[in-house]
From TrEMBL:
One Pfam family named in its UniProt record: MMPL
Phylogenetic classification of the source organism: Bacteria, Pseudomonadati, Pseudomonadota, Betaproteobacteria, Burkholderiales
Cellular component terms per the entry's GO annotation: plasma membrane
Database matches in SUPFAM superfamilies: Multidrug efflux transporter AcrB transmembrane domain
Segments forming domain SSD: 279-397
Name this polypeptide is given: MMPL family transporter
Membrane topology, record value: Multi-pass membrane protein
């Protein structure tokens, strides 16, 4: 047995026969003394879960993206049957390049398109609305009193006289600005959707629906017809169709990671194993998700890459440890066991912190985020087996390149050589001294203070019109812009619901309150218009009195108000006249607009509680957005408190030192604050798509600190100075922290060129977090350690069979 020792006093043993196979902890003995069984079980698991992974589906659900337990959404679901499809819906605008829509050919195309959309799976057909549906009606004052009919009458035959009649019907229908553009060059097909396909009972397939809509667009667009589509389902359909491009960026990120890792190791076999084990983790994750009945959606599609990135980070640490031991002359099997001893506890703690960071997201009462938490937690749990166990065992069989192993010790054997890495280590070592350490801490404090002041301007919800998940120049957002420019009735609708006793919805007292609230809301910035039974009743009074606008008022006449009910459209009240809907059309769905309207309605409800009617928030797309913003705002700080609380507990259990916990956690706090400031600078709001990243940054970032701190603390316990301990940490784990931090940041930074703005934003935030967490572990952590950690008296060197040394002593 060679008498040299490794950096943690583990003996260098060149022959496997000289090693005590029964040494080490119980998990180590169980795994490494039965290596063939471990490999076989992992192979079987990979085959089974790989087969299951082929069954994993990609879809989205409207109801999963909203907080179903929030009072607003509870009210919406309780009255959903009375709301005429005012939830998940798409709008198809059919525009003509001709003189107007009152053209025989245009109306024929509109009719055919209307009929094909009507038959699409998942359409809530009774509430679908266009010029060709029977629920689009007109009303007018005639010499004989009020008259009315469908806009497209049964006698329509395409003649000039019939077209003139259609134009007259449209002008008196009240649909100008809603179903028909003010310039008469386009009209809308309003398509409310069910969340499940009534034929199959399965969730509505937004990808298939989006493809069918695009087929219809391609079929009917042209020859003077332009088609524009907006709505949640179309956004999800576009995101699902763009997943192939997302996968291409993932492939590019994987290639970057592989190339840089090989450039660092110059060892093909170990690079392939690290990448392969990280990919196996993703395959296992997909298989387990399929077995558990989960589906991937556009919000969780980025999680597999995060799992791969975390796996690359941990795998590179294991590979680096084995490579250094082999370079010293240790047998590859023994090197794998030494690395398992040193880094298993630190790696396990880091992965548990990652898992907690993901799992805490389940506290947010929005199912799409809870599903994301489950998807990510499963992926991190899998990494414990693939990267902490399987990878060292595979490396114990295959080993590493001898040249690569010798190269890994170059800095250690010649610490004074003016190589770039050695120079960098010397610069980083300055932060273990009082002056640079104090400067680093003060700079971090200044950045945190400035970042906190900026983060106070962080908004909740969407900050841009249209779909912020997509680029501003995407086809969807161009279509949405067309809708906003040509229609007064915005797609951003907030619906106030009013419940009354049976057959009492047209009482004067109730309608007067609805009218008063309508007037108050119309005075608010961001509110374009309102519509309600109260407004219709006032117009009816005008009609009853020969069109004289002096009668545009509510009158306390029960018979007159009740008579309006017989001709009113059903989207304003229900069959039993026990429900009213007040539609508030908003300019946009920005957070400040929604907050302003919701606050006004809440104040009105508080002042006008009565025994006969009950005002409730909220339905409509904007109402659901408002409820989502409220839940996200409440959950944001609570989520961070839980994440940090769990990380602090796990770090304390691992290190048994509050000083070490401070060194590990404070850099994460700085990164979180600066990340929020960056979101303000980039014009990003906190919403369903971005909220998880804030929590994920904490869980992922602690990995770097734990690997560096575990070595520092272990070396301090052996009596090293902080400078020597930190230098050892840089040689052993710090170099890989630097490597993975820079590599992963470069990989996700390529997402900036993604056509999906959501992915581009996530790439910027993740790249920022990777870099700042790396800097925190390599700069701020040793600076904090200078003031908080002290070396202890040296102890006797460990023998070959002793437990882990480059892990906390209690492990």
């Amino acid at each position: 047995m060679h008498t040299d020792t490794t950096l943690d006093h583990q003996p260098v043993i060149a022959r496997l026969a000289d090693f005590d196979a029964n040494s080490g902890s119980l998990p180590e003995r169980l795994l490494f003394n039965h290596r063939p069984w471990v490999v076989l079980l992992c192979l079987l698991a990979s085959l089974l879960l790989g087969w299951q992974a082929t069954r994993l589906q990609l879809n989205a659900s409207f109801e999963k993206t909203i907080p179903t337990s929030h009072p607003y959404v509870v009210n919406y679901f309780a009255n959903k049957g009375n709301l005429a499809g005012q939830g998940n819906a798409i709008r198809v605008a059919v525009a003509t390049t001709g003189a107007s829509i009152f053209d025989k050919d245009y109306l024929a195309v509109l009719q055919r398109l209307n009929d094909e959309i009507y038959l699409l799976p998942g359409v809530d057909r009774p509430f679908m609305k266009s010029l060709w549906t029977s629920n689009t009606r007109w009303a007018a004052v005639t010499e004989d009193g009020l008259d009315g009919n469908t806009v497209m009458s049964d006698s329509y035959d395409g003649s000039a006289q019939a077209l003139a009649e259609v134009r007259a019907n449209v002008e008196r229908s009240g649909e100008i600005g809603q179903l028909v553009a003010a310039d008469f060059k386009s009209s809308i097909i309003f398509v409310p959707l069910l969340d499940r396909d009534p034929r199959s009972g399965k969730p509505l397939d937004y990808g298939a629906l989006g493809r069918r809509i695009e087929e219809l667009r391609a079929k009917y667009q042209g020859a003077g017809i332009q088609i524009h589509v907006s709505g949640f389902a179309k956004v999800m359909g576009d995101l699902i169709e763009s997943m192939y491009q997302v996968l291409a960026f993932f492939g590019g990120a994987l290639a970057i990671c592989s190339i840089v890792l090989y450039g660092y190791t110059r060892c093909v076999r170990s690079t392939v194993l690290v990448v392969a084990c990280s990919l196996i983790a993703v395959v296992w994750q997909f298989g387990l998700l399929a077995l558990a009945g989960y589906q991937l959606d556009p919000y969780s599609i980025l999680v597999p890459f995060l799992v791969f990135a975390i796996g690359m980070s941990h795998g590179a640490q294991k590979m680096n440890g084995i490579m250094q031991d082999v370079g010293r002359g240790t047998h590859r099997v023994i090197a794998a066991r030494y690395t398992f001893r040193r880094l298993f506890v630190a790696g396990l703690t880091a992965l548990l912190c990652d898992a907690v960071g993901f799992a805490v997201l389940a506290l947010i009462k929005i199912q799409v985020i809870q599903d994301l938490a489950a998807v990510a937690s499963i992926g991190v749990a899998v990494l414990i087996f693939t990267n902490l166990v399987l990878l060292p065992i595979l490396l114990s069989y295959i080993g590493v390149s001898p040249r690569a192993a010798a190269r890994s010790l170059k800095d250690e054997s010649t610490p004074d050589v003016s190589a770039e890495r050695a120079w960098l280590w010397r610069q980083l070592d300055h932060f273990t001294r009082r002056g640079p350490a104090l400067a680093a801490i003060l700079l971090a404090a200044a950045l945190s203070g400035g970042g906190y002041l900026v983060s106070l301007h962080l908004k909740i919800g969407d900050l841009d019109p249209g779909a912020p998940e997509l680029r501003a120049d995407s086809r969807y957002n161009r279509d949405n812009d067309f809708m906003a420019r040509h229609y007064a009735a915005s797609a951003d609708i907030l619906t106030v619901m009013v419940a009354t006793p049976e057959d009492q919805c047209t009482r004067y007292g109730t309608l007067a309150k609805v009218d008063k609230l309508s007037w108050q809301l119309e005075q608010l910035p961001g509110v374009e218009s309102t519509n309600s039974m109260a407004a219709l009743s006032k117009w009816a009074m005008v009609g009853y009195n020969e069109g004289n606008l002096k009668w545009y008022e509510l009158f306390p006449n029960a018979a007159a108000l009740g008579g309006v009910q017989t001709r009113a459209p059903r989207d304003l009240f229900n069959q039993g006249c026990s429900f009213l809907a007040l539609y508030v059309y908003l300019k946009d769905h920005k957070a400040e607009t929604l907050t302003r309207v919701v606050d006004e309605v809440e104040a009105f409800i508080a002042q006008n509680r009565g025994p006969e009617e009950r005002f409730m928030l909220a339905a409509g797309s904007a109402g659901i957005d408002a409820a989502t913003n409220i839940v996200v705002k409440q959950a944001m700080r609570e989520m961070l408190l839980w994440v940090y609380g769990a990380v602090i507990v796990l770090c304390f259990v691992t290190f048994r030192s509050w000083r070490a916990v401070v060194c590990a956690v404070l850099p994460l706090v700085v990164t979180s604050i600066l990340c929020e400031a960056l979101m303000v600078g980039l014009g990003m709001g906190v919403k369903v798509a971005t909220l998880p990243v804030i929590a994920l940054g904490v869980g992922i970032g602690v990995d770097y600190a734990l690997y560096v701190l575990s070595v520092i603390q272990a070396r301090l316990k052996l009596g090293d100075s902080l400078s020597d301990a930190y230098h050892r940490a840089l040689q052993f784990t710090g170099r890989v922290v630097l490597l993975t931090g820079v590599t992963l940041a470069l990989a996700v930074a390529t997402w900036v060129w993604s056509p999906i703005k959501f992915q581009a934003d996530m790439g910027i935030l993740l790249a920022f977090m990777f870099v700042w967490n790396m800097l925190g572990a390599l700069v701020l952590l040793p600076a904090l350690a200078h003031f908080l950690l002290r070396p202890t008296a040296p102890r006797a060197p460990a023998r070959a069979g002793d437990g882990p040394v480059v892990a906390p002593a209690h492990a």
